[in-house]
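Fill in residues.
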Protein backbone atom coordinates (compact mmCIF):
# COMPACT_ATOMS: atom_id res chain seq x y z
CA UNK A 1 0.00 0.00 0.00
CA UNK A 2 1.52 3.31 -1.12
CA UNK A 3 -1.26 5.85 -0.52
CA UNK A 4 -4.97 6.27 0.22
CA UNK A 5 -7.32 9.11 -0.74
CA UNK A 6 -11.05 9.82 -0.48
CA UNK A 7 -12.88 11.89 -3.11
CA UNK A 8 -15.73 14.35 -2.39
CA UNK A 9 -18.15 11.61 -3.54
CA UNK A 10 -16.92 9.35 -0.74
CA UNK A 11 -15.03 6.98 -2.99
CA UNK A 12 -11.83 5.54 -1.53
CA UNK A 13 -8.76 4.88 -3.71
CA UNK A 14 -5.74 2.80 -2.80
CA UNK A 15 -2.45 3.03 -4.67
CA UNK A 16 -0.52 -0.23 -4.54
CA UNK A 17 2.26 -2.07 -6.35
CA UNK A 18 -0.51 -4.09 -8.03
CA UNK A 19 -2.30 -1.04 -9.38
CA UNK A 20 -5.02 1.37 -8.21
CA UNK A 21 -8.06 0.00 -6.41
CA UNK A 22 -11.42 1.72 -5.88
CA UNK A 23 -14.08 1.23 -3.21
CA UNK A 24 -17.51 2.86 -3.16
CA UNK A 25 -18.66 1.20 0.08
CA UNK A 26 -16.03 2.46 2.54
CA UNK A 27 -13.63 -0.40 1.93
CA UNK A 28 -16.02 -3.35 2.20
CA UNK A 29 -15.11 -4.35 -1.35
CA UNK A 30 -12.55 -3.18 -3.93
CA UNK A 31 -12.27 -3.04 -7.72
CA UNK A 32 -9.04 -2.66 -9.66
CA UNK A 33 -9.34 0.38 -11.98
CA UNK A 34 -5.67 0.72 -13.02
CA UNK A 35 -3.14 -2.07 -13.50
CA UNK A 36 0.20 -0.20 -13.19
CA UNK A 37 1.92 0.82 -9.95
CA UNK A 38 -0.03 3.53 -8.11
CA UNK A 39 2.18 5.70 -5.91
CA UNK A 40 0.28 8.89 -5.03
CA UNK A 41 -2.89 10.96 -5.51
CA UNK A 42 -3.97 14.61 -5.67
CA UNK A 43 -7.40 16.25 -5.93
CA UNK A 44 -8.61 19.47 -7.52
CA UNK A 45 -12.35 19.68 -6.99
CA UNK A 46 -13.76 16.46 -8.34
CA UNK A 47 -10.79 15.78 -10.63
CA UNK A 48 -8.41 13.11 -9.40
CA UNK A 49 -4.73 12.81 -10.36
CA UNK A 50 -2.52 9.78 -9.81
CA UNK A 51 1.25 9.39 -9.88
CA UNK A 52 2.09 6.01 -11.36
CA UNK A 53 4.93 3.97 -12.82
CA UNK A 54 3.92 5.38 -16.20
CA UNK A 55 3.64 9.06 -15.31
CA UNK A 56 0.62 11.13 -14.28
CA UNK A 57 -2.95 10.04 -15.00
CA UNK A 58 -6.18 12.02 -14.65
CA UNK A 59 -9.75 10.93 -13.92
CA UNK A 60 -12.80 13.17 -14.24
CA UNK A 61 -15.38 10.47 -13.44
CA UNK A 62 -14.49 9.56 -9.87
CA UNK A 63 -11.81 7.10 -10.91
CA UNK A 64 -13.93 4.94 -13.21
CA UNK A 65 -11.47 5.60 -16.07
CA UNK A 66 -8.05 7.24 -16.42
CA UNK A 67 -6.24 9.32 -19.07
CA UNK A 68 -2.45 9.73 -19.29
CA UNK A 69 -1.12 13.32 -19.20
CA UNK A 70 2.62 12.78 -19.63
CA UNK A 71 3.82 15.03 -22.47
CA UNK A 72 7.30 16.35 -21.69
CA UNK A 73 8.08 13.85 -18.95
CA UNK A 74 11.50 12.33 -19.54
CA UNK A 75 11.21 10.14 -16.45
CA UNK A 76 7.76 8.58 -16.06
CA UNK A 77 8.01 6.94 -12.65
CA UNK A 78 6.06 9.52 -10.65
CA UNK A 79 6.24 8.94 -6.91
CA UNK A 80 4.29 12.06 -5.92
CA UNK A 81 1.74 14.50 -7.33
CA UNK A 82 0.17 17.73 -6.06
CA UNK A 83 -2.44 20.18 -7.33
CA UNK A 84 -2.75 23.90 -6.49
CA UNK A 85 -5.86 25.76 -7.74
CA UNK A 86 -5.07 28.81 -9.88
CA UNK A 87 -6.93 31.51 -11.78
CA UNK A 88 -6.60 29.47 -14.95
CA UNK A 89 -7.74 26.26 -13.29
CA UNK A 90 -4.98 24.29 -11.61
CA UNK A 91 -1.19 24.03 -11.44
CA UNK A 92 0.00 20.44 -11.29
CA UNK A 93 3.26 19.18 -9.84
CA UNK A 94 4.88 15.78 -10.27
CA UNK A 95 7.81 14.27 -8.45
CA UNK A 96 9.37 12.30 -11.29
CA UNK A 97 13.09 12.26 -10.49
CA UNK A 98 12.87 16.04 -10.18
CA UNK A 99 9.94 18.41 -9.67
CA UNK A 100 7.91 18.98 -12.85
CA UNK A 101 5.14 21.54 -13.28
CA UNK A 102 2.18 21.80 -15.64
CA UNK A 103 -0.05 24.85 -16.02
CA UNK A 104 -2.22 23.41 -18.82
CA UNK A 105 -3.95 20.46 -17.17
CA UNK A 106 -1.01 18.16 -17.85
CA UNK A 107 -0.80 18.78 -21.59
CA UNK A 108 2.88 19.76 -21.14
CA UNK A 109 5.40 19.58 -18.30
CA UNK A 110 8.56 21.52 -17.47
CA UNK A 111 11.13 21.53 -14.67
CA UNK A 112 10.32 23.66 -11.62
CA UNK A 113 13.04 22.80 -9.09
CA UNK A 114 15.18 25.94 -8.79
CA UNK A 115 16.83 25.69 -5.38
CA UNK A 116 16.22 22.00 -4.74
CA UNK A 117 19.54 20.23 -4.25
CA UNK A 118 18.12 16.72 -3.91
CA UNK A 119 17.44 14.82 -7.14
CA UNK A 120 15.07 12.27 -5.62
CA UNK A 121 11.59 13.66 -4.94
CA UNK A 122 9.86 11.28 -2.55
CA UNK A 123 6.76 13.26 -1.58
CA UNK A 124 4.78 16.43 -2.38
CA UNK A 125 2.25 18.16 -0.12
CA UNK A 126 0.39 21.49 -0.05
CA UNK A 127 -0.53 23.77 2.84
CA UNK A 128 -2.11 27.24 3.10
CA UNK A 129 0.27 30.07 4.00
CA UNK A 130 -0.12 33.27 5.98
CA UNK A 131 -0.49 35.34 2.81
CA UNK A 132 -3.65 33.56 1.74
CA UNK A 133 -1.88 31.46 -0.89
CA UNK A 134 -0.66 27.89 -0.96
CA UNK A 135 2.79 26.56 -0.19
CA UNK A 136 4.12 23.38 -1.75
CA UNK A 137 6.51 21.11 0.13
CA UNK A 138 8.83 18.53 -1.43
CA UNK A 139 10.41 15.69 0.53
CA UNK A 140 13.81 14.78 -0.92
CA UNK A 141 16.90 12.81 -0.03
CA UNK A 142 18.40 16.09 1.28
CA UNK A 143 15.46 17.22 3.39
CA UNK A 144 12.21 19.15 2.99
CA UNK A 145 11.99 22.08 0.54
CA UNK A 146 9.23 24.70 0.30
CA UNK A 147 8.02 26.99 -2.46
CA UNK A 148 5.56 29.86 -2.04
CA UNK A 149 5.55 30.91 -5.71
CA UNK A 150 4.28 27.79 -7.47
CA UNK A 151 7.68 26.22 -7.88
CA UNK A 152 9.69 29.18 -9.19
CA UNK A 153 11.97 29.14 -6.14
CA UNK A 154 12.53 26.58 -3.39
CA UNK A 155 14.01 26.88 0.11
CA UNK A 156 15.32 24.02 2.22
CA UNK A 157 13.13 23.97 5.33
CA UNK A 158 14.44 20.80 6.92
CA UNK A 159 17.29 22.61 8.68
CA UNK A 160 15.14 23.21 11.78
CA UNK A 161 14.80 19.46 12.18
CA UNK A 162 18.45 18.68 11.50
CA UNK A 163 21.25 17.35 13.64
CA UNK A 164 23.84 20.11 13.73
CA UNK A 165 27.22 18.42 13.77
CA UNK A 166 29.45 21.40 12.97
CA UNK A 167 28.92 24.96 14.20
CA UNK A 168 30.99 28.13 13.81
CA UNK A 169 30.71 31.88 13.26
CA UNK A 170 32.60 33.81 10.57
CA UNK A 171 34.26 37.24 11.09
CA UNK A 172 31.19 38.89 9.53
CA UNK A 173 28.95 37.25 12.15
CA UNK A 174 27.42 34.69 9.78
CA UNK A 175 26.55 31.39 11.48
CA UNK A 176 27.65 28.21 9.69
CA UNK A 177 26.15 24.83 10.50
CA UNK A 178 26.95 21.35 9.27
CA UNK A 179 23.97 19.00 9.11
CA UNK A 180 23.49 15.49 7.80
CA UNK A 181 22.32 16.94 4.46
CA UNK A 182 24.52 20.01 3.80
CA UNK A 183 26.15 23.17 5.15
CA UNK A 184 23.70 25.95 6.03
CA UNK A 185 24.44 29.64 6.54
CA UNK A 186 22.58 32.40 8.37
CA UNK A 187 23.50 36.07 7.97
CA UNK A 188 20.73 37.33 10.29
CA UNK A 189 21.54 35.66 13.63
CA UNK A 190 19.57 32.53 12.78
CA UNK A 191 16.32 34.17 11.64
CA UNK A 192 16.69 32.50 8.24
CA UNK A 193 19.01 29.91 6.73
CA UNK A 194 20.42 29.25 3.27
CA UNK A 195 21.51 25.86 1.99
CA UNK A 196 25.00 26.57 0.61
CA UNK A 197 24.97 23.47 -1.62
CA UNK A 198 28.44 22.52 -0.40
CA UNK A 199 27.80 18.90 -1.41
CA UNK A 200 28.99 17.84 2.01
CA UNK A 201 27.71 17.16 5.53
CA UNK A 202 30.27 19.10 7.59
CA UNK A 203 31.36 17.75 10.96
CA UNK A 204 33.52 20.76 11.80
CA UNK A 205 34.46 24.26 10.62
CA UNK A 206 37.52 26.48 11.07
CA UNK A 207 38.28 30.11 10.18
CA UNK A 208 41.67 31.09 8.77
CA UNK A 209 42.12 34.89 9.04
CA UNK A 210 45.44 34.58 7.19
CA UNK A 211 44.06 32.99 4.03
CA UNK A 212 45.73 33.38 0.66
CA UNK A 213 43.05 35.83 -0.52
CA UNK A 214 41.77 37.11 2.81
CA UNK A 215 39.79 35.09 5.30
CA UNK A 216 39.18 31.43 4.41
CA UNK A 217 36.61 29.10 5.92
CA UNK A 218 37.19 25.34 6.05
CA UNK A 219 34.58 22.61 6.42
CA UNK A 220 35.31 18.91 6.75
CA UNK A 221 33.16 15.87 6.07
CA UNK A 222 33.63 12.16 6.62
CA UNK A 223 32.77 11.48 2.97
CA UNK A 224 33.57 14.69 1.08
CA UNK A 225 36.86 15.52 2.81
CA UNK A 226 37.89 19.19 3.04
CA UNK A 227 35.88 22.06 1.58
CA UNK A 228 37.07 25.68 1.48
CA UNK A 229 35.21 28.96 1.09
CA UNK A 230 36.77 32.34 0.36
CA UNK A 231 33.50 34.30 0.49
CA UNK A 232 32.37 33.86 4.09
CA UNK A 233 30.84 30.42 3.59
CA UNK A 234 28.52 31.37 0.72
CA UNK A 235 30.09 28.95 -1.77
CA UNK A 236 32.54 26.08 -1.38
CA UNK A 237 35.25 24.26 -3.34
CA UNK A 238 37.21 21.09 -2.72
CA UNK A 239 40.53 21.43 -0.88
CA UNK A 240 41.58 17.79 -0.72
CA UNK A 241 45.00 17.89 -2.39
CA UNK A 242 47.20 15.19 -0.82
CA UNK A 243 44.38 14.03 1.48
CA UNK A 244 42.30 12.28 -1.17
CA UNK A 245 39.22 10.33 -0.12
CA UNK A 246 40.32 9.96 3.51
CA UNK A 247 37.58 10.43 6.12
CA UNK A 248 38.08 13.86 7.73
CA UNK A 249 36.49 14.44 11.15
CA UNK A 250 37.90 17.74 12.42
CA UNK A 251 39.69 20.92 11.41
CA UNK A 252 41.28 23.85 13.23
CA UNK A 253 43.51 26.84 12.48
CA UNK A 254 46.54 27.45 14.71
CA UNK A 255 49.39 29.98 14.85
CA UNK A 256 51.85 28.98 12.16
CA UNK A 257 55.36 29.61 11.03
CA UNK A 258 56.60 33.17 10.36
CA UNK A 259 53.46 34.76 11.80
CA UNK A 260 50.97 33.01 9.49
CA UNK A 261 48.51 30.24 10.23
CA UNK A 262 48.56 26.46 9.84
CA UNK A 263 45.42 24.48 9.08
CA UNK A 264 45.16 21.15 10.91
CA UNK A 265 42.86 18.35 9.72
CA UNK A 266 42.13 15.27 11.79
CA UNK A 267 41.41 12.22 9.63
CA UNK A 268 41.03 8.47 10.01
CA UNK A 269 44.54 8.25 8.50
CA UNK A 270 46.07 10.65 11.03
CA UNK A 271 46.74 14.38 11.31
CA UNK A 272 47.40 16.45 8.19
CA UNK A 273 48.84 19.99 8.12
CA UNK A 274 48.60 22.72 5.51
CA UNK A 275 50.83 25.79 5.70
CA UNK A 276 49.38 27.34 2.53
CA UNK A 277 45.68 27.76 3.27
CA UNK A 278 44.68 24.26 2.16
CA UNK A 279 46.59 24.40 -1.12
CA UNK A 280 48.52 21.27 -0.16
CA UNK A 281 48.58 18.95 2.83
CA UNK A 282 51.28 16.94 4.61
CA UNK A 283 50.62 14.01 6.92
CA UNK A 284 52.38 14.82 10.19
CA UNK A 285 51.07 12.14 12.57
CA UNK A 286 49.55 8.86 11.31
CA UNK A 287 48.49 7.49 14.72
CA UNK A 288 46.29 10.34 16.03
CA UNK A 289 42.65 10.96 15.08
CA UNK A 290 41.50 14.20 16.79
CA UNK A 291 37.86 15.29 16.98
CA UNK A 292 38.45 18.66 18.68
CA UNK A 293 41.30 21.02 19.58
CA UNK A 294 42.26 23.79 21.94
CA UNK A 295 45.21 26.20 21.68
CA UNK A 296 46.80 27.50 24.88
CA UNK A 297 49.71 29.84 25.71
CA UNK A 298 52.79 27.88 26.77
CA UNK A 299 54.25 30.47 29.14
CA UNK A 300 57.17 31.28 26.81
CA UNK A 301 55.39 33.51 24.34
CA UNK A 302 54.28 30.62 22.13
CA UNK A 303 51.35 28.24 21.94
CA UNK A 304 50.68 24.55 22.50
CA UNK A 305 48.00 22.69 20.55
CA UNK A 306 46.00 19.94 22.21
CA UNK A 307 43.94 17.57 20.09
CA UNK A 308 41.47 15.14 21.64
CA UNK A 309 39.78 12.28 19.83
CA UNK A 310 40.17 8.58 19.19
CA UNK A 311 43.15 7.43 21.20
CA UNK A 312 42.91 10.19 23.80
CA UNK A 313 44.72 13.55 23.86
CA UNK A 314 47.79 14.52 21.83
CA UNK A 315 49.90 17.68 22.03
CA UNK A 316 51.99 19.68 19.57
CA UNK A 317 54.47 22.31 20.69
CA UNK A 318 55.68 23.30 17.21
CA UNK A 319 52.67 24.72 15.36
CA UNK A 320 51.28 21.26 14.57
CA UNK A 321 54.32 19.77 12.81
CA UNK A 322 54.89 16.99 15.37
CA UNK A 323 52.58 15.41 17.96
CA UNK A 324 53.01 13.39 21.16
CA UNK A 325 50.37 11.30 23.01
CA UNK A 326 49.48 12.26 26.58
CA UNK A 327 48.17 8.86 27.66
CA UNK A 328 44.50 9.76 28.19
CA UNK A 329 42.68 6.51 27.45
CA UNK A 330 39.18 7.77 26.60
CA UNK A 331 37.73 8.90 23.26
CA UNK A 332 37.51 12.68 23.55
CA UNK A 333 34.81 14.68 21.76
CA UNK A 334 35.40 18.16 23.19
CA UNK A 335 38.44 20.15 24.36
CA UNK A 336 38.67 23.44 26.29
CA UNK A 337 41.09 25.37 28.49
CA UNK A 338 41.29 28.36 30.77
CA UNK A 339 42.67 31.53 29.21
CA UNK A 340 46.11 31.09 30.76
CA UNK A 341 46.28 27.38 29.91
CA UNK A 342 46.56 26.40 33.59
CA UNK A 343 43.66 23.97 33.24
CA UNK A 344 42.84 21.69 30.33
CA UNK A 345 39.47 19.98 29.94
CA UNK A 346 38.48 16.91 27.94
CA UNK A 347 34.87 15.86 27.49
CA UNK A 348 33.25 12.77 26.06
CA UNK A 349 30.52 10.15 26.21
CA UNK A 350 30.10 8.42 28.64
CA UNK A 351 32.83 9.68 30.99
CA UNK A 352 31.77 13.34 31.30
CA UNK A 353 34.56 15.87 31.86
CA UNK A 354 38.18 15.33 32.92
CA UNK A 355 40.59 18.07 33.99
CA UNK A 356 44.38 18.40 33.89
CA UNK A 357 46.46 21.01 35.70
CA UNK A 358 49.82 19.74 34.46
CA UNK A 359 49.56 20.25 30.68
CA UNK A 360 47.86 16.90 30.14
CA UNK A 361 50.28 14.65 32.03
CA UNK A 362 47.53 13.51 34.43
CA UNK A 363 43.74 13.77 34.36
CA UNK A 364 41.00 13.80 37.02
CA UNK A 365 37.21 13.49 36.53
CA UNK A 366 35.28 16.64 37.48
CA UNK A 367 31.59 15.72 37.21
CA UNK A 368 30.07 17.11 40.42
CA UNK A 369 26.61 18.39 39.42
CA UNK A 370 26.92 17.03 35.91
CA UNK A 371 23.71 14.98 35.91
CA UNK A 372 24.34 13.49 32.47
CA UNK A 373 27.89 12.47 31.60
CA UNK A 374 27.24 12.00 27.87
CA UNK A 375 29.25 15.06 26.81
CA UNK A 376 29.90 15.91 23.15
CA UNK A 377 31.12 19.54 23.30
CA UNK A 378 33.07 21.89 25.57
CA UNK A 379 33.40 25.67 25.23
CA UNK A 380 34.88 28.47 27.30
CA UNK A 381 33.67 31.80 25.86
CA UNK A 382 35.88 33.93 28.08
CA UNK A 383 38.64 31.64 29.31
CA UNK A 384 37.02 31.55 32.76
CA UNK A 385 33.56 29.98 32.50
CA UNK A 386 33.17 26.53 30.98
CA UNK A 387 30.15 25.08 29.19
CA UNK A 388 29.68 21.33 28.72
CA UNK A 389 26.96 20.06 26.41
CA UNK A 390 25.59 16.71 25.37
CA UNK A 391 22.58 14.43 25.41
CA UNK A 392 21.44 15.82 28.76
CA UNK A 393 21.55 19.48 27.76
CA UNK A 394 24.00 22.25 28.69
CA UNK A 395 25.90 22.71 31.97
CA UNK A 396 28.04 25.59 33.23
CA UNK A 397 31.00 25.67 35.62
CA UNK A 398 32.51 28.84 37.09
CA UNK A 399 35.09 27.09 39.26
CA UNK A 400 37.27 25.26 36.76
CA UNK A 401 35.00 22.23 36.71
CA UNK A 402 34.75 21.66 40.48
CA UNK A 403 30.97 22.00 40.21
CA UNK A 404 28.37 22.24 37.47
CA UNK A 405 24.90 23.76 37.14
CA UNK A 406 22.35 23.06 34.38
CA UNK A 407 21.65 26.06 32.11
CA UNK A 408 19.70 24.31 29.34
CA UNK A 409 16.21 25.34 30.42
CA UNK A 410 13.91 25.29 27.40
CA UNK A 411 15.98 22.90 25.31
CA UNK A 412 13.93 19.96 24.09
CA UNK A 413 16.78 17.97 22.57
CA UNK A 414 20.39 17.02 23.14
CA UNK A 415 23.30 19.19 22.05
CA UNK A 416 26.06 18.20 19.67
CA UNK A 417 28.05 21.44 19.21
CA UNK A 418 28.58 24.90 20.77
CA UNK A 419 29.72 28.33 19.52
CA UNK A 420 29.48 32.00 20.46
CA UNK A 421 27.76 34.56 18.23
CA UNK A 422 29.81 37.11 16.31
CA UNK A 423 29.10 39.89 18.81
CA UNK A 424 30.14 37.67 21.72
CA UNK A 425 26.85 37.99 23.59
CA UNK A 426 24.99 34.77 22.72
CA UNK A 427 25.66 31.07 23.19
CA UNK A 428 24.70 28.97 20.15
CA UNK A 429 23.87 25.28 20.52
CA UNK A 430 23.75 22.87 17.60
CA UNK A 431 21.29 20.19 18.64
CA UNK A 432 20.86 16.51 17.88
CA UNK A 433 17.64 16.94 15.93
CA UNK A 434 16.19 20.46 16.02
CA UNK A 435 18.70 22.80 14.40
CA UNK A 436 20.38 25.66 16.29
CA UNK A 437 19.16 27.13 19.59
CA UNK A 438 20.50 30.26 21.25
CA UNK A 439 20.51 31.92 24.67
CA UNK A 440 22.12 35.19 25.86
CA UNK A 441 25.26 34.56 27.87
CA UNK A 442 24.11 37.21 30.35
CA UNK A 443 21.23 34.94 31.39
CA UNK A 444 23.70 32.25 32.43
CA UNK A 445 26.86 34.03 33.50
CA UNK A 446 26.38 36.14 36.60
CA UNK A 447 22.60 35.75 36.88
CA UNK A 448 19.97 33.11 37.58
CA UNK A 449 20.38 29.78 35.84
CA UNK A 450 23.58 28.69 37.56
CA UNK A 451 23.51 29.43 41.28
CA UNK A 452 27.25 29.23 41.81
CA UNK A 453 28.22 31.50 38.92
CA UNK A 454 29.67 34.92 39.69
CA UNK A 455 29.83 37.91 37.41
CA UNK A 456 32.73 37.63 34.97
CA UNK A 457 34.78 40.55 36.25
CA UNK A 458 37.79 38.93 34.60
CA UNK A 459 36.16 38.00 31.29
CA UNK A 460 37.59 38.76 27.86
CA UNK A 461 35.46 41.65 26.58
CA UNK A 462 35.44 43.66 23.36
CA UNK A 463 33.44 46.78 24.20
CA UNK A 464 33.31 48.15 20.69
CA UNK A 465 34.35 51.51 19.36
CA UNK A 466 33.50 55.18 19.95
CA UNK A 467 32.43 57.11 18.05
CA UNK A 468 30.47 54.76 15.80
CA UNK A 469 29.78 55.74 13.05
CA UNK A 470 33.03 57.70 12.71
CA UNK A 471 34.84 59.77 10.11
CA UNK A 472 38.44 60.56 11.07
CA UNK A 473 39.18 57.92 13.69
CA UNK A 474 37.69 55.77 16.44
CA UNK A 475 38.76 54.30 19.77
CA UNK A 476 38.34 50.61 20.54
CA UNK A 477 38.17 49.40 24.15
CA UNK A 478 38.66 45.84 25.32
CA UNK A 479 39.34 43.98 28.56
CA UNK A 480 41.75 41.13 29.28
CA UNK A 481 41.52 39.16 32.56
CA UNK A 482 45.28 38.65 32.73
CA UNK A 483 48.39 39.19 30.65
CA UNK A 484 48.05 37.05 27.52
CA UNK A 485 48.75 36.99 23.79
CA UNK A 486 46.10 39.02 21.95
CA UNK A 487 45.38 39.96 18.36
CA UNK A 488 43.05 42.77 17.31
CA UNK A 489 42.43 43.10 13.58
CA UNK A 490 40.19 45.24 11.38
CA UNK A 491 38.43 43.38 8.53
CA UNK A 492 36.26 44.51 5.65
CA UNK A 493 32.89 42.80 5.10
CA UNK A 494 34.45 40.44 2.56
CA UNK A 495 36.66 39.05 5.33
CA UNK A 496 39.91 40.64 4.14
CA UNK A 497 42.28 41.86 6.85
CA UNK A 498 42.64 45.65 6.60
CA UNK A 499 44.81 46.58 9.57
CA UNK A 500 46.34 44.71 12.51
CA UNK A 501 46.24 46.99 15.55
CA UNK A 502 47.43 44.57 18.25
CA UNK A 503 49.51 41.42 17.83
CA UNK A 504 51.46 40.37 20.91
CA UNK A 505 51.28 39.86 24.65
CA UNK A 506 49.08 42.46 26.34
CA UNK A 507 48.85 43.40 30.01
CA UNK A 508 45.72 42.64 32.03
CA UNK A 509 42.89 45.11 32.49
CA UNK A 510 41.18 47.76 30.39
CA UNK A 511 42.95 48.22 27.07
CA UNK A 512 42.46 50.91 24.42
CA UNK A 513 43.64 51.30 20.85
CA UNK A 514 42.81 53.84 18.13
CA UNK A 515 42.18 53.18 14.45
CA UNK A 516 42.65 56.09 12.07
CA UNK A 517 40.76 54.48 9.18
CA UNK A 518 43.91 53.54 7.28
CA UNK A 519 45.16 50.18 6.03
CA UNK A 520 48.55 48.57 6.61
CA UNK A 521 50.15 50.62 3.85
CA UNK A 522 48.90 53.89 5.36
CA UNK A 523 46.22 54.55 2.74
CA UNK A 524 42.77 55.74 3.77
CA UNK A 525 40.15 53.00 3.30
CA UNK A 526 36.77 53.63 1.75
CA UNK A 527 33.52 54.35 3.52
CA UNK A 528 31.43 51.40 4.63
CA UNK A 529 31.07 48.67 7.24
CA UNK A 530 34.13 47.15 8.90
CA UNK A 531 34.60 44.51 11.57
CA UNK A 532 36.95 44.64 14.53
CA UNK A 533 37.96 41.20 15.80
CA UNK A 534 39.69 40.40 19.09
CA UNK A 535 41.40 37.02 19.46
CA UNK A 536 42.65 36.16 22.95
CA UNK A 537 42.62 33.22 25.31
CA UNK A 538 41.35 30.87 22.65
CA UNK A 539 38.21 32.96 22.11
CA UNK A 540 37.07 35.47 19.51
CA UNK A 541 35.00 38.65 19.84
CA UNK A 542 33.73 40.66 16.87
CA UNK A 543 32.06 44.08 16.59
CA UNK A 544 30.73 46.06 13.64
CA UNK A 545 31.97 49.58 12.83
CA UNK A 546 30.74 52.12 10.28
CA UNK A 547 33.18 54.49 8.59
CA UNK A 548 31.49 57.56 7.05
Amino acid sequence: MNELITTPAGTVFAGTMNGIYRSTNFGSSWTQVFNLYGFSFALNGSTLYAGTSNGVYRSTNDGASWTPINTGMQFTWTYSVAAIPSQSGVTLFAGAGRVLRSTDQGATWALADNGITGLSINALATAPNAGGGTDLYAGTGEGVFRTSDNGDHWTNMSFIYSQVQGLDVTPSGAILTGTETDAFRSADEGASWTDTDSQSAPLDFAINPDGTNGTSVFAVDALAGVRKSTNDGITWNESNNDIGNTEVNSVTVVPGDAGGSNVIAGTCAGIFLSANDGGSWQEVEPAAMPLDYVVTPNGSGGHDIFGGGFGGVWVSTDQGHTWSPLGFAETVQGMAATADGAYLFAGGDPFGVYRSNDRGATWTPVNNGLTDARISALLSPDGTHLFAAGAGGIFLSADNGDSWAPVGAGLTTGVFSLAVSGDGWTLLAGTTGFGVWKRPLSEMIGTAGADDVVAPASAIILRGNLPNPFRDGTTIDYVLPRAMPARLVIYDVAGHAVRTLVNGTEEAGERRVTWDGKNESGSQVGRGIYLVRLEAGGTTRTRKMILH
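The two ends are 66 Å apart (CA to CA).
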